[in-house]
Design goal:
Largest sheet: 7 strands, mixed
Strand content: 25-35%
CATH class of the largest domain: Alpha Beta
Number of domains: 3
Distance between the termini: 65 Å
Helix content: 25-40%
């Protein structure tokens, strides 16, 4: 039955339906037979092949991605649609065992990976932080917030909207970061039994990088008896796990003084003042690595912010990764372990590996791969949208 006869229809140019027939969720503006003049950003539209065959429905926006597909059928995008998708997403997190007394932080919706392109929702205790990356999700925020509080068993009482930095600037939507439902009720969340202050009011992204949870836990298992350096520490996640895992010394470095303060607060939350193993330094990463003595650390974490936000910055980004890793290979103690990451979507796993390999070769040291890391299961990748795999990491043993 066609509920959607009154919504605008966009037609594709000939041969442009191929990727959509493979269920890839993006329609690029160049694939449209003509650019619509009178459709507002965020409007739900129908997409048809050049021969008039219905492909599905999605959110329209201005930019290189013109439509983010919500469904490959003539589905009505209403409360029931969002409720269904959110319930599916929550069922997966429950199946993964991510909501437990000792773990109250997890990602509930990961955009395309949960078939809700343009939407990110992270849960911290009884607060959900909702982030829109598309005008369509911005306009649906009140429905989504309401449905989040109705998820049976999820215990979400507050929904904070944090999209000031993520929405396309050109859309002039003027999103205000604020509570859509509820209010502030404390901001300490638990991850694998460790406590963290989550700063969703002023922090980056939704306030905490839940995507490193499994990788932090792995580091905790390898930290015993090691001197650990955590570069680009942000809120100190890796530092707290290292201490819990029995590291003898932990140094956290970030160019932002605010990040250093957050890290110190999180260490304090988990360890008494009498525990003197940790110190935090506000300093540029390259400067710190240059000044550092050889052999000072047995475990180094390199988790930089995205060096390449876009393809155009790719060359410089790869050089940045190479330079950064070369310093670590040069300075790490024999028998050292290096955790090195890239969270740039524009950098492929292969390109990242090559950058790290070249850095290793420069050091002439024997280096072995122990683990190849990616994002955790609450950041799923739709098999039809491989671009959703952004986090790449290697754990290396350096002789």
């Amino acid at each position: 039955m066609n509920h959607n006869h009154n919504i605008p229809t966009l037609r594709l140019r000939r041969g442009k339906e191929e990727s959509l027939d493979r269920l890839h969720p993006w329609v690029f503006s160049g694939a449209l037979s003509e650019m619509p003049r009178d459709i507002d950003e965020g409007t739900v539209v129908r997409v048809e092949a050049s021969d008039g065959r219905l492909i599905g429905v999605g959110h329209f926006q201005i930019g290189s991605i013109a439509v983010r597909m919500l469904d490959f059928a003539d589905t009505q995008i209403d409360e029931a649609f969002y409720s269904g998708r959110l319930n599916d997403a929550y069922a997966l997190r429950r199946a993964l065992g991510l909501q437990r007394p000792d773990n109250t932080a997890f990602r509930l919706v990961h955009g395309e990976g949960d078939f809700l392109p343009g939407l990110v929702v992270d849960v911290y205790g009884d607060t959900a932080v909702l982030q829109a990356h598309s005008p369509g999700m911005h306009f649906a925020r009140d429905i989504i917030a309401r449905e989040l509080t109705r998820l049976p068993g999820a215990g979400i009482a507050n929904v904070y909207y944090k999209s000031e930095t993520t929405l396309p600037f050109k859309a002039r939507l003027d999103p205000q970061n604020d509570y859509i439902i509820g209010s502030y009720s404390g901001n300490v969340a638990t991850e694998n039994g460790l406590k963290f202050h989550i700063d969703w009011l002023r922090g980056q992204k939704t306030g905490f990088f839940v995507d490193q949870r499994d990788n932090r836990a792995l580091l905790g298992r390898l930290a015993a008896g090691r001197r650990v350096l955590n570069m680009f520490c942000y809120t100190g996640g890796f530092s707290v796990y290292a201490m819990a895992g029995g590291a003898t010394e932990v140094v956290s470095v970030d160019s932002s003084a605010k990040a250093v303060t957050l890290t110190e607060a999180n260490v304090k939350l988990n360890f008494p003042d009498s525990d003197t193993r940790h110190r935090a330094v506000a300093e540029d990463a390259f400067k710190h690595l240059d000044a550092m003595q050889r052999g000072a650390y047995d475990l180094i974490v390199l988790d930089p912010p995205a060096f390449a936000k876009h393809r155009s910055a790719l060359h410089n980004a790869l050089q940045g990764y190479r330079r950064l890793n070369a310093r670590a290979f040069e300075k790490i103690a024999p028998g050292g372990i290096l955790f090195t990451f890239s969270c740039s979507q524009a950098v492929t796993r292969e390109q990242f590996r090559v950058a790290v390999f070249s850095a290793a070769a420069q050091s002439r040291r024997r280096v072995r791969i122990l683990h190849q890391l990616t994002q955790p299961a609450d950041h799923p990748v739709s098999i039809y949208h491989p671009e959703g795999e952004y986090l790449k990491g290697l754990v290396l043993y350096v002789e």
